[in-house]
Amino acid sequence: LTFAGVGLSTDFKRMKAGMRPFLVGFGVETIVSIVTFTLVYYVIGLVP
């Protein structure tokens, strides 16, 4: 799969090596989004 001359690698060894950093990043992004939504809902008064 390519877009604008950039290929998408399907090397499974590289994907497997990058799975842990991906999961850590996904977890951090999830926490940040939950905190952000909680703050927004608190400010607009939906959370008591």
Commentary on this structure:
There is one protein chain. By secondary structure, the protein is mainly alpha-helical. The protein has one domain (13-48). It contains two helices and two strands. It has helices spanning 12-17, 19-44, and strands at 2-3, 6-7. Strands 1-2 form a two-stranded antiparallel ribbon. A hairpin with a 2-residue loop joins strand 1 (2-3) and strand 2. The chain is rod-shaped and about 50 Å long. The mean pLDDT is 76.
H/E element string? EEHH
Tally of DSSP β-strands: 2
Distance between the termini: 48 Å
Order of adjacent strands in the largest pleated sheet: 1-2
Number of helical regions: 2
Tell me roughly what share of residues is in helical segments.
55-70%
Quick synopsis:
This protein is mostly helical. Helices cover 67% and strands 8% of the residues. The protein has a two-stranded antiparallel ribbon with strand order 1-2.
What are the SSEs and their pairings?
Blueprint: E1 2-3, E2 6-7, H1 12-17, H2 19-44
Antiparallel strand pairs: 1-2
Q: What are its keywords?
A:
48 residues, mainly alpha, two-stranded antiparallel sheet, 2 strands, 67% helix, 8% strand, rod-shaped
